[in-house]
Amino acid sequence: MKIAILGGGPSGLYFAISMKLRDASHDITVYERNRADDTFGWGVVLSDETMSNFEGNDPVSEKMIRDNFAYWDDVKTIRGDEAMTSSGHGFCGIGRKKMLLLLQQRARELGVKLEFESDMSEEKIAALKTSHDLLVAADGLNSKTRSIYADEFKPEIDMRKNHFVWLGTHQKFDDAFTFIFEKTEHGWIWAHAYQFDDDTATFIVECGPEVFKAFGFDKLNQQESIALCEKIFAKHLGGHALMTNANHIRGSAWIQFPRVTCENWYFDNVVLLGDASATAHFSIGSGSKLGMESAIMLADELSSGKPLEDALQSYQDERKLQVIRVTSAARNSTTWFEEVERYLDLDMMQFNYALLTRSQRISHENLRLRDPEWLASAESWFQKQAGSNSTRRPMFAPFKLRDMELVNRVVVSPMAQYKAKDGMPNDWHFVHYAERAKGGAGLVFTEMLCVSHEGRITPGCPRIGEEQLPVWSRLVDFVHAETPAKICAQIGHAGRKGSTRLAWDGIDMPLPEGENWPLLSASAIPLMEGNVVPKAMDPADMDMVKAQFIEAVKSANAAGFDMIEMHAAHGYLLASFISPVTNIRDDEYGGSLENRMRFPLEIFHAMRAEWPEEKPMTVRISAHDWMGDEGVTPEEAVQISAMFKAAGADAINTSSGQTDKAEKPVYGRMFQVPFADRVRNEIDLPTLVAGNIYEPDHVNSILMAGRADLVLLARPHLADPYWTLHAAVELGDAEQDWPAPYEGGRRQANLLAERARAMAT
C-alpha cells in the first residue's frame, strides 16, 4: 500500500512502524508540520499493561522506550499540610521528546519516510487522499483533516471548564506520581507532577474557571503566569523554577481540555487515529497509550487480507468500543477534578480514596491488590467513623438515622411486584420481603404503597391503610423477630402514571376500556397518547390527597415500620408537581421551583408531623429528568434536596428519570451515583443511591469514597434474596451472621469459597 500519515506524534509514528513490520514493501510517508525535535508536552505516562502490548507488537521499539523510563509505584496526595501515599500502581514515564526521537529512529530503520515542517493545506490533504491508497489522519486533537471532512466524521467537541497549563521542572518527583492541592486566597489550585527522566518532571497546574479568572491568568503572559505558579507551589518546588516549552504560543499557554468524539472514524480511504478520533483527559494519562494501541489494531486489520472498506469498518467497530471504555473513565476523572472543591473538606483518608478511584477503573478490591496495608487502614478508618471497631468492608459498617440503627449499608431497593388484589398485599408480599430481610441486607424497602385506590399504579399495586394494616403488621413483626434488618414503607400516589396494566402485560399502557379509573396530577397531561387524561388538582383535591397521606403514615406507624419514605420521583403525583415537564400550572403551585415544591413540601410536613420523632423519614427524588433544560437537572436537584432537608428530611434517595416518555437517559454502571454524590457533599445530607449497582465492589467503592451513605440494589436482590450473605462469602468475610437454621449452609459456602480461592492461587 501507498500510505500517507498526517502527524508525526506517537500514534502516527507507531502506526508507520507497525505497518512496516507487517509488510516492509509498504510505501509510507509521515508528514509532520513541526520540526523533528519540537514537542509541546513534557512527559508521557504508560502502564505496565501498555508496555506488554508494545512488546508483543515490536520488541525493538519497546526496549528503546523502556530503557529510557522513569518508574514509580506510589501515588502521593498532598493537601495543604497533609500528605498520604499509597503504593502498587505500577506506572512509568518517558519524556515526550525522547519518545518521539526514538520512534523516529525506529521508523527510519524500517524505511519509513519522514517529512518535517510540512504544513498541510486543504488542497494538499485532498491531493494526498487521491494519490495514496490510505490517508491516516493522526494530526491530533485539533485535526485539520477531521475539520475538513467534518460532514463525514461527524465530530463532537466538548470543551471542559477547567483551565490547565503544561509545565516542567527540575525538582524531583521521582518517588511517586504526586497530586498537590493548595488553598489560596482565590480558592483551590492543584498540580499533577511526575518524573519522566533523571532531571525533569512534568508539572501540570490546573484550576477551575473562577480561580483562573481571580488570579488573572487570562491576562498574564507566559512568564508572569509561570512566576505566579512558582509562588503558589513554592514549598513543593525546592527552589527550582517551572519551565515552559510552548514559547511559540502567544499569551499564557493555559488551555481548556477539548473532549473529542466522532461518530465515524473513517470514510473512503481516510481514517482517523489517536487524538484526532477521540481524546482522553490528561488526568488518567492515556492519550499516547490509546493512540499507539489503536495503531496496532489498525495495522492488524489492514494486514488481515480484508478489502480496505471491511478492514476500516472492523477497526472502527472493535477499537471504538475499547476506546470508549477508557474515554468514559477519563470523563469520570475530568468531572471529578472539575468538582474537586466538593471533596476537599473530606477527611484526608476519604479524599485520597476518592482521588484514587475517581475514574472507576480502580475498584475497591483492586486497591487491595495494589496496597493491602493502605486499604486496610482506610477500611478501619471508615468503620471508626461509623462507630465500630471492626475492620470489615465499608458495606458492613453500621449506619444510624435518628434512632434507627442498621447493621450494614446494603439496602433492598423498592421493586413493584404487581401481585396485590384490590390493593391488598398477600402471601406473595410476605414471602418476598421476609426472604430478603433474611438475606442479610441492613434495610428492606417495600414497593411504593399507595395512599388510595385511585392512587395505585396498576390493579396489582398494594395500598397502605387501616384495611391493609394486619398484613403489613404481620410482615414487620416477622422481620423484627427473625432478622436484624429494618424495614421501610415507601409511600406514594401514582398520579398520571396510574390506571395502567401490570408490567408483563404492557408497562405504562392503559387498562382495557371500561377498567380505567380517574387520575389526578399537577396538570392535565396524560402519560402517553391513549392513557387517561388526569385532572389538574384543585385545592379540594390537594386537601383530600393530604389526608390520604396522613392516614397512610398513621397505618405505617401502627404496623411498626422503622422508617418511611415519601415517593416524589419518577413522574408520580408528587414528582409531577416538581418537574416543569409535568407541571404547567399558572397558580401558586406552578412556575418557579419554589412554587412547584409547595405541594410536595406540604405533604412532607403533614407526613413528618404524624411520624414519630425518633423514626427517620426520607424522600426519593428524580435528580435528573434526562430532558435537557426542559426538566429537572442535577443542579436543580441540589436545591430540591436542600428544601427537603430544611423541612426535616433525614436523607435523600437520589434516583432519576421516568418522568416522561421523551426522556433520553444515559445509562451505565453506577450511573446515578454522581447525583447522590452531589447532593450529599454539597448540602451535607446523607444520600441513598440505586442504579446498575450489582457487585460488592460497587457498594464498597461508593461508600468508601463518600459518594453515598446507603446503597440500594434492585435486580440483584430479585435474582438472589441472599445477596448480602453471598457477597460476604465472596469477599472472604467470615464475620457475617446467617440465620441460625442456615448455619450449615454458611459453613459449607465459606469452605467452598476458600477452596476456590486456594485453587485460583
From TrEMBL:
Source organism superkingdom: Bacteria
Residues covered by the FAD-binding domain: 2-327
Pfam families documented for this protein: FAD_binding_3, Oxidored_FMN
Residues covered by the NADH:flavin oxidoreductase/NADH oxidase N-terminal domain: 395-728
Recorded coiled-coil stretches: none
Protein name: Bifunctional salicylyl-CoA 5-hydroxylase/oxidoreductase
